[in-house]
Structures are given as structure tokens and as C-alpha cells.
Amino acid sequence: MLPMPWKAALAALTLSVSLPAFAESGPAERGPAERLEADLRALFAAEGRLEIGEVSAALIRDRVTARELHFVGPDGQQLWLDRYVVSGDYDRPDEVRIEGIRLATPGREHSQLTAGTLVLDEPSRAVLPLHEERWPQGLRIAGLEVETLAAEFAGQHLGEEFGEGQGRIVLERLQVTGLSREAIDSLEVSGLEGQAEGDGEFGSGTFSLAFARAEGLRGLDKDEGEQQLERLELRDLAIDSDRLVASLAGLEVDGNLQDGEGGLRLEALDLDLARMIALAPEEERTQLRMASNVLTGGSGQLRLDAVSTGRWEAEDGATRLLGELDVTAEEAFGWVLDADLPVRLPEGVEPAAFLAEMEGLEGVTLLGGRVDATLSDLGLFGRLPAVMAASQGISEAVFLEQARTQARGFGMMLGPEVEAILTGLVAMMAGEARELSLQLTLPADSELEALSADPLALPERLEMRVESR
Length: 469
What we know:
Shape: elongated
Radius of gyration: 30 Å
């Protein structure tokens, strides 16, 4: 799992306003400049000392600006703001812009944050308290940099994958719209780079992300795992760490099934297995190198591409679930799946809601349907006999003959369909076939949960055709 650096940025920015409750503004007769100074001092008053260089109001435009703010907290934390600008009606501003942000926290949790600008679109008031119920319509950050030397801070905000240690994040731009405690309409990030030194799952390393956009994030106020995301897009992700060396050209996830379809597209996931094996413990390298050679033909570079689409259609009281999956591991294998399943969902359950929250198959009745699958050899199966024979100290010919005998034995126990599958796999290893295809016709009026609970009985209940070519 990848770290979530934008959470670190937002958490650090929150430190700049995680102070006392907001005090009421002064009398209405005071001008915007006096009100802004009073509100800022009220916000910071109970937690430390605030210095303000000057506060002034524009003569022509509805704008009031506080310059050169410096806050010192009780534990030595310091916050500097070059400018705090309120535009529009002071009581309902169009925009609040904060420029030249610098935040430093000392001691064990030492961290530093800088940001060029932080813009709040249509906030409910000029100076927002932390407990404000009505959040701004949007938030924009440019030129953000977060650096921490704190073990506790790094472990919490740079991701448990990197463990405890120091880290640094640089963010070119972050934009959030439709912001609330429960949801985010959209979140967009560009120009993200980071590094971490730690002993977690990924160890020390660097990461970069050219672009990311998430839409329709709901359930932020709910327990972990109950959140929903309508759409996610990533571009040009790279990770180079002690235990993972990988890059991803693109990822698109459509999780909004209200329109009847969704899907996933994975573009050019490149895993540098050779580098990762060199970084692995010495006693594990032999087995890892053998597996890498089988998968990549000795190149040590594995590339994956995948496309998955799913649709649902409601007709005559039933629901048709249609899906396609196409996975390619370059120089290794290809896997294509095509399914058309008419089902009856539990009473009163909408298809989109069921698919979005599906945790099991209880209550789903299968009304027939079909599943077609094709496994293609792109090099993997041709390499298997040499590796397997060498590991057993026998010749490739003897290994293949033993594999054919075992396939016939399993067929006697589990049926001719299973024998046909295993025999087809042996034919692919022997270079006698390049593809293995399965066509399944599913039984009507069957409980899906019962079928999935007894996979060994499936060949007897399904109509199966197996071809190798």
C-alpha cells in the first residue's frame, strides 16, 4: 500500500490553526482592518503569543490584509505568515488567501512546513476556528513542502509502510472542492515528490507522482473501510525503496455503479525484480531469482497491464451482471475472462448498492449464464519444465511425462473436465499448445454461496468445455 502524503500536508497545515475556539467579532462599527486584527488575536490568544506587523484595508476593493504574522506556542512551536488576505464581504468572504506560510515544531516531534499559498474559497467567515461546522467550498495549496525528523510523526503521517524515521514531501499543487467533514467532491494533486527513511514495510526510499485526482469521496466521518470513492486517476507514479522498486504509467478506477457500469484500467505497472532481489536478504535471493527468471525470462523486469469492466442491467425482475477482464504480464502470460451472469438479488436490494457494498454472495440466486476464460502462454509455460526438472534432479522429458501421468490421475478422481485442464497446461509447457480455453455454462436456480463453498463439486454441476490449441 502506498503512503498518503497529501494527508501529511493537510495534517501539518491543520497545526497552523489547531488553536482555541473563536471569539465573537468586535462591535459592528469597527472597520474590517480592526475586526481582522481582533479576530486573529482572539484565535491565537489562549495558546501563545501572536505578533502582527500591520493590518490595512484597500481603499477601492473589498480587501483587508494582515502582514508579517508570527505566532509562538507554549511548547516552542512557531508559525509565520507573510500575508493573511480577506477578499469580499468580511462577514461572508469570497476568498481568504494566506501567503508565505512557515511552520516549525521543535523537540522529538520536530517538523517543518512551508507553503507558498493557501486559498480558501467562500469560507463562512474571515477567520475560521478549528471547530467550524461549515467548511469552505474549496481549498487550494501551492508550493507545499513538509519535512519531519520525528519518528512518531513519520510513522503516523508518511505511512506505516515506511515505519519510523525522517521524511520530506514536496507538493506543487493541491486543490480540493466540495469539502466537508463527511465528504470531498474532488481532490487533485500534481507534482508530488517525497522521501522517507525508516524501517517499515517498504523501508527507506523515494516516491513521485505526477498527477492524481479523486472524485466523490464519501464517508470520511465513518469507520475505516466504510468510505466510498466514485473515481480515481493516477499518472506517472514511481517508488524506489529498499524493498519495492516499481513504476506505474497510469491507473483509472471507476467505482460509481449508479450509471450501470464501472471498471479499472492499469497501464504499464513495471516491477524491477532484479533490483528488489539484490536488496533482499541474501538467504532469500536464490529462490527469488529462480521465480524471477521463470516470470521474466532472465530480464528481471516484469510489466503488467490490466483492463477490467463491469456492467449491470435490470430486466424482468432479474439483474444481469456482465464483466470482462484482460490481464497481460509481458513475456509471461495473458488471461482473458468474459462473464454474463443473470442473477436474482435479495428482495429490495438495488444492483448498484449491492455491488458497491458486496461482502458476500448470501441470498444471490444464479439464473444460468456463462463464463469464458482463455489463458495464453507468452513465455512463462515454456520456461517452467527446465526449472521444475532442475529442482527435482530429472530431465525435462521425464518431468513432462510425470506431469501427464498426474493429470490423468486427477482426471480419474475429479472427472474428465479437470483432466482436460491439466492436460492442456502440460501441452503448453511442452510447446504443443499456446492457449487453453474454458467455456462454462452455469446451472440455473442455484445459490451462488453454495456453489462457491464447494469448488470441487463444480465440475459435476457445470457444463464445461475445455480446448487447448
